[in-house]
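Checklist before submission:
- one chain only
- standard amino acids only
- sequence pasted in full

Submission:
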Amino acid sequence: MNQHVAAYAFLHELYEDDYFPNHVVDRGRAILVRLCERIEAEQPKDLAALYVLTDAATDEFNLLEAEFEEAGSEIETTAREAIGEDFWFIATSYGFIDADTERLIANREW
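Returned file contents:
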């Protein structure tokens, strides 16, 4: 994995807040790591190809929302911003500096 990405603490704001259960945040972190792995494996050539990958990862977060709710939490403003920032961090770390943060998570349901 890209060393810059490997050293990054995904969703660190959520881990620091007791409102978000770590076992569910761990699953969110795994989604982000898989996104990085897919980017490295598939090497998207443009933003459109990147957005296909980020849409799939966002769909996984959509499913994860139910697990947050079952644990007495939810993907609310703090979580939404942290997730969006991490998607942007990933995109820019792989050279997609023109990626639109909102478009990266456009199909979110949270």
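Reviewer check: Residues 3-104 form one domain.
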